[in-house]
Amino acid sequence: MPVDTADWRICTSTRDRLGESILWHPVEQSLYWIDFYGPTVHRQRRGSGVVENWKLDFAETMGSLVLTDKGLLLAMDHGLHLLNTDTGKTRFFADPKNGQMNLVYNDGKVDRAGRYWIGTYDVSERDPKALFFRKTPDDGWVVGDEGFVICNGPAFSPDNRKLYFSDTVAHRILSYDLDEHGSISGRRVFFTFATRDGMPDGLAVDSAGNVWCALYGGSKVACIDARGTLRRSLYLPATFVTSLCFGGPELKTLYVTTGWNSSTTEANKADDVGGAVFMRPVDIPGMPEPIITL
Questions:
Q1: End-to-end CA separation in angstroms for the chain
Q2: 77 in Cβ contact with 61 (< 8 Å)
Q3: Checking CA distances to 16, which of 65, 216, 252, 256 falls within 20 to 30 Å?
Q4: Domain 3-281, CATH among 3.40.50.300, 1.20.1250.20, 3.40.1160.10, 2.120.10.30
Q5: Is residue 43 within 8 Å of 50, Cβ to Cβ?
């Protein structure tokens, strides 16, 4: 198995405590990502070194963002909110966990049929009580799966018939069959990481069906083919690798967010640049990020 140690390029001036949920907007040709603890939304338009910021002071954390026809849908700690990037105003959207304060919203994505999926995590990061929700066409919510400590990922195969999910604390990626109605079934282990690899966090799938995984604490991104075989490991000069996406005009640039934690030995290394956003070219393009219609 080849191990790629090629240099990455830092593409923004930001240094986030916990960069997360990076997405390329296919219409705007802009890069969006968040600082989980800001909580702050960042945007960098193609060809610009300028980073725009929206700091949200009504919550302590922000788990993820997705693209919608009405702005950005943000998973704030205890509720989902829409952000209008033209005005900077937010409005409450939904709370499918119905006020359960032991759960906090985390990673979310839109599948290729335009359905929104959002996961949670247990506040203690110890109990397997987290829920993984899907929004229904009638603005209802269903639990797709449950029994996790932290829900991360998710990502979808090019044909939208498989859903991939990071069961972070268990150090594994799960896969499910996804039908045309949005129901998932057939949960199985797609790939298991060793403890030394770090914990699987954000996921992205390229146009060939390869699953790319950010490994928190592992200083790397792993590429796993659709059969579950590890193909590449791309190492970064940052310990806490959190999220990734494909962007650029041909979707052949891999963007990766990272974080820092000053309480750890790794983050105190002189060459650790955790919190930066990294980029590098890849051979296989990604898939355009879906935009949900609300």
A1: 43
A2: yes
A3: 252
A4: 2.120.10.30
A5: no
